[in-house]
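Thread amino acids onto this structure.
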């Protein structure tokens, strides 16, 4: 519930570390943990189950509060690492990544450990440097919980089971020509290309795009922002390629705007085939909230084909990891990207930027918001570091100013910040858009403006 009086409950005046004080764009990218868990378990999970949070932590072998910050080497940042000097994410070299085969034992046999000295045989050479994560005295006995990353082969950003490595590492995709394909077609192990539905099921909605198992939150958040602010920009253009009605190709236009995923302006043609698991009709990458609708998947596929200059119909989607959400919005709409850092601006200045790009509380120019690449504020907040969110607009409630945001995962809203609004926002042009229920667990939330400045590194606009 929102705080009624006084200052918000987070230390909003904590100084921003010097390494983070930059006016330059910062790339972001983090994987949706649901996609990783489903890839490991090889089955679809009911994420509305209250036990799903514990399931994520157990399967990914990481404390839940450490999942959302790369400084803990979380598997959600697989293939990347945090440079602690520059506080930027950097792609790991293939030689720096260890792939664990299914036959390998992840956790060593601890039955023979009777003294701390026995740990040396398992790889902990300097016991005096082993970190203690928990210590207590119980019935006169000292109990310690040690954190020794060299002790086992627990999953991290650089130690990955093969089924996860094949999902996040581009080099593991096998290039081969399929029936009617060519040498540029990408065929990752454990996945197939298949037509999964219709371009649209109803209308273009901001809630349609849901990010999957590649760290391209910057692109999916941008797609959601365009679908919200400029829905007519999402266009279905297709033509027949054969005698049957199912033989068709789609044309999607992207515009050259710079950044690390860019190419000359072009119309990109792709068929309705998208990547799904070979064990079920579920995509490991971008999906739609509307079952059987594929426009978000096709936009992701077409963007990958465009930015990699792929000549086939099966581009390597893993190549879209880590990028710039403001540039992505411009690439989708042929507009100019704007990046506003938060550290040099007051909460009211940030508030004004959102309002200047909104009408009737709702953004009319596509907007996103990016978090810092790391920070103590993300521990326990359920706000994700190095992540892009869609900015939907603003509101005032209980005398406080809020910015309305959406996590492109379609879930995982802030908790424990004391600065979110729980209620029903009904003023987002109800003649077209359905009211937004802030109580539902759909990734949409409203964050008090001072807390927004504390957690977020930048506001991004395309206009």
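Threaded sequence (463 positions):
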């Amino acid at each position: 519930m929102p705080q009624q009086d006084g200052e918000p409950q987070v230390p909003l005046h904590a100084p921003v570390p010097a390494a983070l004080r930059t006016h330059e764009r910062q790339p972001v990218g983090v994987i949706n943990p649901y996609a990783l868990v489903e890839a490991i378990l090889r089955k679809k999970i009911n994420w509305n189950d209250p036990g799903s949070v514990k399931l994520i932590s157990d399967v990914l072998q990481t404390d839940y509060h450490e999942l959302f910050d790369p400084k803990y080497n979380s598997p959600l940042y697989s293939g990347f690492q945090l440079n602690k000097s520059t506080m930027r994410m950097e792609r790991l070299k293939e030689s720096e990544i260890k792939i664990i085969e299914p036959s390998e034992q992840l956790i060593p046999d601890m039955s023979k450990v009777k003294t701390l000295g026995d740990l040396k045989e398992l790889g902990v050479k300097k016991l005096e440097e082993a970190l203690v994560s928990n210590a207590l005295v119980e019935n006169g006995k000292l109990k310690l919980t040690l954190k020794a990353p060299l002790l086992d082969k627990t999953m991290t950003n650089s130690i990955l089971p093969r089924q996860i490595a094949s999902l996040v590492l581009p080099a593991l995709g096998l290039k081969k020509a399929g029936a009617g394909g060519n040498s540029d077609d990408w065929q990752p192990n454990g996945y197939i290309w298949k037509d999964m539905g219709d371009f649209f099921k109803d209308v273009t909605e901001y809630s349609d795009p849901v990010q999957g198992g590649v760290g391209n939150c910057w692109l999916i958040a941008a797609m959601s922002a365009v679908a919200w602010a400029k829905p007519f920009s999402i266009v279905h253009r297709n033509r027949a390629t054969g005698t049957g009605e199912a033989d068709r190709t789609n044309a999607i236009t992207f515009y050259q705007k710079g950044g690390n995923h860019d190419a000359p302006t072009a119309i990109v043609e792709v068929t309705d085939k998208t990547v799904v698991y070979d064990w079920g009709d579920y995509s490991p990458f971008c999906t739609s909230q509307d079952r059987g609708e594929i426009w978000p998947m096709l936009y992701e596929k077409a963007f990958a084909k465009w930015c990699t200059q792929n000549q086939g119909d099966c581009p390597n989607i893993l190549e879209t990891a880590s990028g710039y959400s403001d540039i992505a919005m411009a690439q989708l709409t042929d507009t100019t990207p704007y990046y506003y850092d938060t550290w040099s601006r007051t909460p009211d200045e940030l508030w004004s930027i959102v309002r200047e790009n909104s009408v009737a509380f709702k953004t009319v120019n596509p907007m996103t918001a990016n978090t810092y690449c790391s920070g103590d504020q993300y521990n326990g907040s359920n706000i994700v570091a190095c992540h892009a969110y869609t900015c939907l607009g603003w509101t005032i409630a209980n005398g406080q100013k809020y910015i309305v945001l959406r996590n492109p995962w379609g879930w995982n809203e802030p908790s424990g910040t004391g600065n979110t609004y729980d209620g029903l926002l009904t003023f987002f042009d109800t003649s077209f858009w359905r009211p937004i229920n802030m109580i539902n667990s759909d990734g949409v939330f409203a964050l008090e403006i001072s807390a927004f400045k504390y957690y977020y590194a930048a506001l991004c606009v395309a206009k």
